[in-house]
Design brief:
48 residues; mainly alpha
């Protein structure tokens, strides 16, 4: 019973995570995250 419960919990968490990612993409958060990542990389390299 323990292994079955862990498997179910893992699948539920994966589905929940994918749902949250889809919600973020539909809200336009992907663009915000990409801009922050680009700015951070440029600052670390010293170009920006």
């Amino acid at each position: 019973m323990g292994k079955r419960m862990r498997t179910c919990a893992g699948i539920c968490m994966a589905v929940l995570g994918m749902g949250m990612m889809a919600y973020g993409v539909f809200r336009g958060e992907m663009e915000v995250v990409m801009m922050k990542a680009i700015n951070l990389c440029l600052e670390c390299i010293g170009i920006g």
